[in-house]
Amino acid sequence: MAPEVLHNKGYDYLVDYWSLGAILFEFLSGSPPFTAPTMEEVWVNVYHWQKVLERPVYTEEVDKEFNLTDDAWDLITR
């Protein structure tokens, strides 16, 4: 759910781009963009996404191919 929806502000088709970015993040990184022990904490993370969202970095040699490119990260965070 896009932050605009959580803010109870009006929203338009741009929230679909938010969803696309979240799906793209999970598709490329293998994990959801926002995780937490409880759903309430997940909503807080979505609400404050600019402070919470982190680019995943894989350091193990066998996993380095899964690091997001600069272009992919730029597309996700637009």
UniProtKB/TrEMBL annotation:
Going by the UniProt record, its keywords in alphabetical order are: ATP-binding, Kinase, Nucleotide-binding, Phosphoprotein, Serine/threonine-protein kinase, Transferase
Q: Does the keyword Ion transport apply?
A: no
Ranges where the Protein kinase domain occurs: 1-78
Q: What catalytic activity does the UniProt entry give for this protein? A: L-seryl-[protein] + ATP = O-phospho-L-seryl-[protein] + ADP + H(+); L-threonyl-[protein] + ATP = O-phospho-L-threonyl-[protein] + ADP + H(+)
Keyword Nucleotide-binding belongs to the record: yes
Q: Which GO terms describe its cellular component?
A: spindle pole body
Name its GO BP terms in alphabetical order.
intracellular signal transduction
InterPro entries (UniProt xref): Kinase-like_dom_sf, Prot_kinase_dom, Ser_Thr_kinase_AGC
One GO MF term on file is: protein serine/threonine kinase activity
Concerning Pfam families, the annotation shows: Pkinase
Q: What is this protein called?
A: non-specific serine/threonine protein kinase
User: Which species is this UniProt entry from?
Assistant: Olpidium bornovanus
